[in-house]
Design brief:
The chain is of the alpha/beta class and 191 residues long. The protein contains five helices and seven strands, in the order E-H-H-E-E-E-E-H-H-E-H-E.
Length: 191
């Protein structure tokens, strides 16, 4: 719940942005085939998605970097759930703010289950724009960063988009962006 959001966390390894329009770091990573196979096997054995495994690992990394046990990490939802969008091309992305609380005594399997529940809860409300959520909670926007989270994690299976569109000439191409609107954005591609 975001009724009483935790303090934002800053990752010490990355310099904090200052001033409006400042850009954060953007880390793009491709999973090597053995690491990807291990992640998929772990996800399948625990009944969770590969994204849940990635997000759980990210939360552990953030905890190690910052000591923050309670944190909101931004992520995105493709927004293609509505039946009226079935024949539309492209993505209808909405940013979601799943919040997780880590317990030092919890096993990794318990963390996976917690992250699975948190992500499922956030995605149940994926149709609600993040700005609307901020307004309803009385959380003010900030010129120098997002008021709820400073890191964003995305996991893209480019094959999904190509499968969606069939043989309609769809292809995926990476583009370089000048920076992230967050302190740190991690984008993992599966292709």
């Amino acid at each position: 719940t975001l009724a009483d959001p935790p303090e934002r966390i800053l990752v010490p390894a990355f310099p904090a942005r200052s001033g409006a329009g400042a850009r954060g770091a953007w880390a793009r990573r491709r999973l090597a085939a053995p690491a990807h196979a291990s992640m998929i096997a772990l996800a399948q054995s625990r009944g969770v998605s590969a994204f849940v495994v990635l997000l759980a690992c990210w939360r552990l990394w953030l905890w190690g970097q910052t000591g923050a046990r309670d944190a909101v990490v931004g992520t995105v939802h493709a927004g293609r759930d509505h039946p009226d969008l079935a024949d539309q091309g492209g993505r209808f992305v909405n940013t979601q703010p799943p919040r997780s609380r880590l317990s030092p005594q919890a096993s990794f399997e318990e963390l996976l289950e917690d992250v699975r529940q948190v992500v499922a809860g956030a995605f149940e409300h994926a149709h609600v724009p993040l700005n609307f959520l901020l307004e309803r909670r009385g959380i003010a926007r900030e010129a120098h960063g997002h008021p709820l989270f400073e890191t964003l994690v995305t996991y893209d299976d480019i094959r999904d988009l190509v499968r969606e569109r069939g043989n309609q000439g769809v292809s995926a191409r990476e583009i370089d962006l000048p920076g992230s609107p967050f302190e740190l954005t991690l984008t993992v591609h599966e292709d």
